[in-house]
């Protein structure tokens, strides 16, 4: 029988683990217990146990040092850590030292603990069979990655060789209800920052164990780490049911656990179902085809591959966009300036850059329809572009468009409180900015003295008459710089500046660049690339 040593400073936890497990079922018995790391090390040297269950935070010697000392002996002892969620930063080092599993103290059920012990028992059995040979014990996750994932990706080894290797580790893939599911952690970088795990080793270790425990309860699948935030789940069944019901339950439980424990959501790319083992690679390729459109997949969504998946995805995007925008925007504007261009683009190609341009163009139109009359449109455009460029998916872009459009709508409502004379003056400026305009001309037009007009203009709009006029002209010139081949002096005159030098100085004052520098820096155009 395999000898087990428990190292845990909390007596209730030690007693609970020892009493709740039927150790004989795993061909194991508890040889001793320790309340601190130093005692555990002494007992380890005395008993040479096959399995050590150790806490991380213990007096005199912590669990990390104990694991390091055990590994320094060269012994293949199986080590399982007793972990709390707040131990993750310390568990990183334990993972590097080769622990084979973990038990989440106080929250794991007896069945879940037994599943961890069953995996350890299988590894110990494998080590026992290969003693005296040069073969080193291999972690099942490594086998899945190097054999199954390699076959799915490169077709090397062959399917028969892959299945044969898995059978050596007591893993059988049944030929019914075969489905592959690619899981992608949506807020992966957030998770790395939270646990200070830049290489993702701790996250990988934790997620593989959690997902494997969930799959073990259903007895219907395998999980293998693909790369970074991606994990591949392979579902199979002994009998043919042609039902996704069991799979849906597993995915739902994974979502719940990741949300509750890590505050992240995964989204899934699900293949078709087949009863033919030889189509495994085809199923995996279906997942990858969906995954190529990650930018357009909603966080926390389950996306199924079929013959019409592109049409379905397109309709999902358009429906969500329509419902979101029509709640506060004019449906005519939404349809003409966003939905129609989006539909045309998405039917042709799912391009994030092209969609960015559509949102940008629509915002420019909305800005001039609803936007500020205070000459600050350049700042609004700049802020919107910065926010749009930082978006990681379509739904973030949609959220940013909504947020910025609502700010413009709020400002538009506030402008409604402007006096009749100022509104009349703004309309005149916007219609005549391209020619010479004087303060006397505008004040006379609205029936006010120049001094009084200047005073209420500044009070209501927060800027002077000349400042507003210059900003508005610069905005117009920016649009011409972006979308025409006109010379700088031609644009200056077209926007109401009688002197090219004054235009250049004014442009740099408001934008920080010369007109030519701005033209060169324009990377967003109205063309859909």
Automatic annotation (TrEMBL):
Organism domain of life: Bacteria
Modified residues (4-aspartylphosphate): 55
PROSITE patterns assigned to the protein according to its UniProt record, in alphabetical order: HTH_ARAC_FAMILY_2, RESPONSE_REGULATORY
InterPro entries per record: CheY-like_superfamily, Homeodomain-like_sf, HptR, HTH_AraC, Sig_transdc_resp-reg_receiver
UniProt keyword list: Cytoplasm, DNA-binding, Phosphoprotein, Transcription, Transcription regulation, Two-component regulatory system
Location of the Response regulatory domain: 3-120
Cell compartment(s), UniProt: Cytoplasm
Residue ranges of every copy of the HTH araC/xylS-type domain listed in the record: 423-521
Main subcellular localisation: cytoplasm
Function field: May play the central regulatory role in sporulation. It may be an element of the effector pathway responsible for the activation of sporulation genes in response to nutritional stress. Spo0A may act in concert with spo0H (a sigma factor) to control the expression of some genes that are critical to the sporulation process.
Protein name in the entry: Stage 0 sporulation protein A homolog
């Amino acid at each position: 029988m395999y000898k087990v040593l428990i190292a845990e400073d909390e007596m209730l936890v030690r007693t609970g683990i020892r009493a709740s497990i039927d150790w004989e079922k795993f061909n194991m018995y508890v040889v001793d217990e320790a309340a601190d790391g130093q005692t555990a090390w002494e007992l380890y040297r005395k008993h040479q146990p096959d399995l050590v269950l150790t806490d991380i935070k213990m007096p005199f010697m912590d669990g990390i040092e104990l694991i390091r000392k055990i590994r320094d002996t060269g012994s293949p002892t199986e080590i399982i850590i007793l972990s709390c969620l707040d131990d993750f930063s310390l568990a990183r080092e334990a993972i590097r030292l080769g622990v084979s599993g973990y038990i989440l103290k106080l929250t794991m059920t007896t069945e879940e603990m037994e599943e961890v012990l069953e995996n350890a028992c299988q590894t110990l059995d494998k080590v026992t069979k290969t003693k005296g040979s040069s073969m080193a014990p291999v972690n099942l996750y490594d086998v899945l990655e190097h054999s199954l994932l390699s076959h799915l990706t490169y077709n090397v080894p062959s399917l028969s060789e892959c299945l044969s290797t898995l059978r050596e580790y007591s893993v059988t893939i049944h030929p019914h209800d075969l489905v592959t599911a690619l899981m992608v952690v949506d807020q992966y970088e957030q998770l790395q920052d939270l646990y200070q795990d830049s290489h993702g080793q701790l996250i990988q270790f934790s997620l593989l164990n959690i997902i494997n425990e969930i799959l073990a309860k259903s007895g219907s699948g395998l999980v293998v780490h693909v790369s970074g935030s991606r994990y591949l789940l392979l579902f199979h069944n002994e009998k043919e049911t042609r039902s996704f019901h069991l799979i849906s339950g597993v995915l739902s439980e994974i979502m719940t656990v990741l949300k509750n424990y890590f505050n992240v959501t995964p989204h899934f790319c699900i293949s078709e179902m087949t009863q033919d083992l030889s189509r495994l690679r085809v199923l995996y390729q279906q997942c990858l085809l969906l995954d190529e459109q990650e930018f357009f997949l909603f966080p926390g969504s389950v996306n199924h591959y079929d013959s019409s998946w592109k049409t379905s995805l397109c309709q999902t995007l358009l429906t969500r966009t329509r419902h979101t925008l029509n709640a506060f925007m004019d449906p005519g504007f939404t349809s003409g300036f966003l939905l129609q261009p989006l539909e045309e683009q998405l039917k042709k190609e799912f391009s994030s850059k092209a969609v960015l341009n559509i949102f940008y163009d629509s915002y420019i139109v909305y800005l001039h329809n609803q936007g500020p009359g205070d000459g600050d449109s350049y700042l609004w455009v700049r802020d919107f572009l910065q926010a749009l460029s930082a978006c990681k998916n379509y739904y973030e872009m949609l959220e940013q468009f909504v947020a910025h459009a609502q700010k413009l709508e709020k400002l538009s409502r506030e402008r409604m409180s402007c006096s009749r004379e100022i509104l009349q003056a703004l309309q005149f400026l916007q219609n005549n900015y391209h020619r010479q305009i004087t303060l006397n001309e505008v004040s006379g037009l609205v029936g006010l003295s120049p001094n009084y007009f200047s005073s209420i203009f500044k009070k209501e709009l927060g800027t002077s008459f000349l400042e507003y006029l210059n900003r508005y002209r610069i905005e117009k010139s920016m649009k011409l710089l972006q979308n025409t081949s006109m010379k700088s002096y031609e644009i200056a005159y077209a926007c109401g500046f009688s002197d090219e030098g004054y235009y250049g100085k004014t442009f740099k004052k408001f934008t920080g660049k010369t007109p030519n520098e701005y033209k060169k820096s324009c990377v967003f155009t109205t063309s859909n690339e």
